[in-house]
Every structure is written in C-alpha cells, then in structure tokens.
Design a protein that fits this description.
Strand content: 35-45%
CATH architecture: Beta Barrel
Structural class: mainly beta
Number of domains: 1
Number of helices: 4
CATH topology: Lipocalin
Number of strands: 17
Largest sheet: 10 strands, antiparallel, barrel
Shape: globular
Oligomer: single chain
Radius of gyration: 24 Å
C-alpha cells in the first residue's frame, strides 16, 4: 500500500502558473506550451528512502558536546565531533511552474525557464524507535535553456534554503546513458583549508571500531554487527548507493551533475551559483575564524529506470488489486509497491516484468572551521511513496 506517514508538502495554488503579462491588452495571444523541463520531468510526486549522512560538527569549549565514553589521554583538540546518521527521507515535488520569463539584454534573446518546487525532509533514525528531524530544505529545481550570452548549452539549477543559515545555487548539466550509473567513491576525510593538493588529516573518529572518540554514536559495535554503519561505509558513503543497486537491473540512467562553483579546467564553463551564509556561520571572517562556513556544494542525482520481476499470486477477475513489493538488494532498503490488477484470471502465480523510476544522489558540502575543511556527505536512494499502478500494457 502507499506510504501512510505524514507528507512533506509544498504546494502552489491550483490556479497559479507562471507567464508573462501581455503588453497589448486588446489582443489575446494564443496559448503557448510551457518550456521543457528536460530531465526534471521525472521529479513528480513524493519519494521516500533510507540513507546515510556524515558531518563533522564544530565542538565549542563553551558548549561542549557531552559524550558517554571518555576520551583516553592525551585527549585530542576538542574542536569537532563526527556525527553519523542513519536517515529516513521524504522528497516532495509540486507541479511545474510554467513559463518563467528572464529578459535578455542586447544580443541575448529572452529566455524562458521552467522548474519544479520541492521540499526535502530528513529524520535521523539511528536509535531504533526514535526519529529526530535533522534537515529541512525548501527549494526549486530549474531547467535553463541554451543561451548566447554567456555561450552555454541548456543547464539544470537547484536553488535551496537551509535553516542553519545558508542558501545555495548549484548549476550543472545532465547526460543519459544506457544501463546503471557509475558511482565513484567519496571521501569524508578533512583537509587543511587552502592546501593544494589537499593535505588530508584522518581523525580517530573515522575508525569504526574505536568507541572512545569524539563521535555520535561513539560505540558502533551493534551497528557493525547489524551491517548498518561499518568501516567500508565510513571510508566511502557512496558504497550504500552501490549496495542498493547491486541486485537491480537498471536499463537507463540520467545523471544531473551540479555544483555551486564552475567545474575546473579544462571543463571550465561560465556557470553561476554559489553559497551564502549568515553572520553566525561566517564568524570572524576577517580573521579567518568561521564558526561553520558552508563553502561549496557538489551533488550528483541519478534518475534510473529499474526493471523488476514481481510474482503475482493467483487472481480472479473482479477481485481487488494486489499490492506487490519490489525486492530490496540489501536489508533496510526502501522499495516501491506495485498495484496489480491482472486483465484475466490467473490459476497459478505469474512472473510479471515491470519497471519503475528511482532517484539516487550523493552530495558533499564543504564546511570551514578550526583551520580545516570538512566534507559533509549525504547519500540516499529514493523510490515513489505511492503505489505504482501497473498498466495493462505490461501484460502484453
């Protein structure tokens, strides 16, 4: 059955659609189709998933984080705590905006954008039976057509607001390939701010078997035994995404690659974007002493077409639809539910090939404090929250 939990919601009025005011009020122009959404056409409805989040948090001497296990002498500088979160997420999309006019200057014609508002809500579910809200993000995904000034092909932009006091604008491109995505490893190891190449500094909290480090949770033994937080996961959070698709048949993948800064040479493009922080996050910026400055964000969203074989039980025409769940690749993975109404009687169980859309993402935000740059990495695999109605054409 469809997900019955309370929904994250961001809704435009039903009669609202972006357009442009006509200059001649005596002439009614014919209606125009909205600009394309490109790969954003997949961003419809509600999506759910269980993922993983890592963040090195500042740890102030004025308000130190209480930890149950003592840190053995000599204690390290208590300037950070590594927080690990098993997460439950809901990502909700509203209807598309319509035609958003951006006016060009000189040789640049007007550009008409279209976009999809969204609301992301993430809860920590690390402690069994408890749910703690750790992230909420309203924003808009925008499809930008190709432009002459600057000379740039069509692009995708994500605009987001985070209640810690940061806003992001991340621009990028998309590409579609046959088959599954290629998911590269990601490293959470901090590095000295400004070092080039990065001078990485590995912390004891990155060792899963060590229960006496500045980390939440400190003792990971039960999570290691359960396979939910392990050393390979700390070494590469993207390994969770890889495990989620390990037993899936993915026939096509569209990758949306976005960043708050332009890609490095030789791919350097005239992209916009950036991150803004409130004064608290910047701290004493002139003295290079931020409290937790969000410096940069990079993310990849993979929109995947997954082929699944479900087992439909015996059925007599006229009975209610069956609800059949897809098979997870690993325990704890959220999977979609299919609503199946066979067009004819079934005397025995029947294997039916169906497909669904799945969204995976990896995101890294670079935070600056205590003279270090700290990668804050979040990953998840999201599936439709509502039952997927299997069309009659699937039986052909």
């Amino acid at each position: 059955m469809s997900d019955t939990k309370p929904r994250a919601s961001i809704e435009l009025p039903s009669d609202f659609i972006f357009g442009q005011v006509r200059p001649d009020q005596t002439v009614t122009p014919p209606p125009q189709p909205p600009p394309p959404l490109g790969p954003l056409t997949a961003f419809v409805g509600d999506w759910v998933g269980n993922g993983f989040n890592t963040i090195f948090r500042p740890d102030s001497a004025a308000t130190p984080t209480p930890l149950p296990n003592p840190i053995p002498p000599p204690p390290p500088p208590r300037d950070n705590v590594l927080e690990l979160n098993l997460t439950s997420e809901r990502l909700s999309f509203s209807k598309s905006l319509g035609s958003v006019p951006n006016r060009g200057t000189a040789t640049q014609p007007d550009a008409f954008l279209n976009g999809v508002p969204y609301l992301q809500v993430i809860n920590d579910i690390t402690i069994h039976g408890e749910s703690v809200g750790i992230h909420v993000e309203p924003g808009i995904w925008i499809h930008v057509p190709a432009t002459l000034v600057p000379p740039l092909g069509e692009s995708i932009t994500r605009m987001a607001s985070i209640p810690h006091g940061a806003t992001i604008e991340a621009q990028g491109t998309s590409l579609t390939v046959a088959g599954p995505p290629t998911i590269a490893p990601v490293d959470i190891t901090p590095f000295t701010t400004g070092s080039n190449p990065p001078k990485k500094i590995r912390f004891a909290s990155q060792t899963a078997a060590d229960p006496n480090t500045p980390r939440i949770p400190q003792d990971l033994s039960s999570f290691i035994a359960a396979g939910t937080i392990t050393q390979p996961l700390l070494d590469n959070p993207n390994s969770l995404l890889q495990s989620h698709i390990s037993k899936q048949k993915i026939t096509a993948t569209t990758a949306i690659i976005i960043s708050t800064g332009p890609p490095p040479p030789p791919q350097l493009l005239p992209f916009g974007g950036g991150v803004d922080n409130i004064a608290f996050l910047l701290g004493q910026a002139a003295a290079t002493a931020p409290n937790a400055q969000a410096l940069q964000m990079f993310a990849i969203f993979w929109i995947e077409t997954v082929q699944e074989v479900i087992l439909v039980p015996p059925y007599t025409v006229g009975e209610p639809p069956f609800a059949v769940k897809a098979k997870p690749s690993v325990p704890g993975q959220r999977v979609p539910t299919f609503s199946v109404t066979p067009p004819h009687d079934l005397d025995m169980p029947f294997e039916l090939t169906v497909q669904f859309t799945q969204i995976q993402y990896t995101q890294a935000v670079l935070l600056n404090f205590a003279g270090q740059t700290w990668p804050h990495v979040s990953v998840n695999t999201l599936v439709p929250a509502d039952d997927i109605i299997v069309p009659f054409s699937a039986w052909n």
